[in-house]
Amino acid sequence: MNHLTKNLTLESLEHWLRQDNAAELEKLWAAADAVRREHVGDAVHLRGLIEISNYCVRQCAYCGLAVTNPYLERYRMTDEEILECARQAHQFGYGTVVMQAGEDYGLETDRIARLVQAIKAELPLAVTLSLGERNPQELALWRTAGADRYLLRFETSDPELYAMIHPPRPGQTYSRFDLLRILRQLGYEVGSGVMIGIPGQTYRTLAHDILKFEQFDLDMIGVGPYIPNPLTPLGRGEEPLCIDPEQQVPNSELMAYKVIALTRLVCPQANIPSTTALATINRDNGRELGLSRGANVVMPNVTPVKYRTRYEIYPGKACLNETAQACQGCLKGRIRALGRFVGQGPGGRVR
Ligand code: SAM
Fold first, then answer.
1. What's the pLDDT tens digit per position in 155-182?
2. How far from the centroid of its chain's Cα atoms is residue 273's Cα?
3. Residue 290: pLDDT band with limits 50, 70, 90
4. pLDDT class for 72, splitting at 50, 70, 90?
């Protein structure tokens, strides 16, 4: 029944999410690692992350960038600063830059289009955007300007939980699921994902989330533990949904590995990062264990340190004070020590 095949059912996914037997989990890690090797190989692709603005209009109950956090010192990078980070990413041998921000309408549509064009004209990089729920016309313009990929996590597939932790913007027309479909139609490589262990998230919900990854045939899937931020309603313990404690998914390191491994099994070709959130809860070897249990991507931060410390989604983020130079040296060493190698080129979805 609970065999580790590609066709995992809701029941078998839930079984594996609840599995705590070390010998059984070894089988899960081995299966995920074998599927990873077979479908995406031993390359670990590095994506240079540029956190271009920490302004956000949204009121997400989990996120330190939310407009409701008055303690965050806000910044927006200049075009020249962003281009300089992209040049540095290229010098480090990264094949992709990811421009991420809060949902910041101070990042005007045309300005982002010009920036994408400028990066593509000067550097042989894939460009990924992660700028929140922008409208389909903007997404289309950025795609025409040359953007290759877009990341938009759906955070949880439980509509009731989602509505409580991610209040809608007044006048909002499109859901995140609508936008994922639109991004696909526009020809982007599409990335999404969820947080693991959000208060109110059940094992059944998380199993559903993993099946959604398969249903949307996602190209990139980011899954990482929810890390409480005391400057947010969720982090202060204002629990959104009352559920049976037995059903609550823990936001543990072990649970993160289970979700990475199961995600690899249901989506063998996807690019799956070993996330910063995972490295934050295990600084010694969280990234490596993620890479050994299904992941094949790492997103080293190339944001200038003076801004990086202000992109405080949650406290205590890993590598916060490391320079981009130090980060790349450290990561490449860790990848080699695993017997893997750094992927060359843009490292898009293999089919
Ligand atoms: N504004 C864009 C968006 O919402 O897609 C991109 C930036 S947003 C900060 C990037 C991701 O950070 C979110 O999709 C969410 O999963 C993650 N995140 C936010 N708060 C978090 C927390 N407390 N713990 C773990 N991950 C968190």
1. 999 999 999 999 999 988 999 999 999 9
2. 7
3. very high
4. very high
Rounded to 5°, the CA angle 242-244-245 comes to 100
231 CA distance to ligand 1 middle (Å):
14
Give the list of residues 6+ apart from residue 217 with CB closer than 8 angstroms, or none. 267
pLDDT value for 2:
53
What does the block give as tokens for 15? 């079984």
Kindly report the backbone phi and psi dihedral angles of residue 145, in degrees, each rounded to the nearest multiple of 5, phi listed first: -70, -15
Ligand 1 centre distance from Cα of residue 314 (Å): 9
DSSP 168: P
Identify the sign of the CA torsion 335, 336, 341, 344: positive
Alpha-helical segments (H) within the chain: 10-18, 22-40, 79-91, 109-122, 136-145, 159-165, 176-185, 203-215, 253-266, 276-281, 286-292, 305-308, 324-337
Q: Any idea which architecture 2-342 has in CATH? A: Alpha-Beta Barrel (3.20)
Domain range annotation of the chain: 2-342
Q: Across residues 282-286, what is the average pLDDT?
A: 94
d(C-alpha 65, C-alpha 103), whole Å:
9
Question: Which atom of ligand 1 is nearest the CA belonging to 153?
Answer: 14
51 CA to middle of ligand 1, Å? 12
- Number of Cβ within a 10 Å radius of residue 118: 16
Residue labelled with tokens 């609550």: 248
Q: Give CA–CA dist 205/341, Å, rounded.
A: 35
Separation CA 53–CA 56 (nearest Å): 8
Looking at every residue in the chain, the average pLDDT score rounds to 95
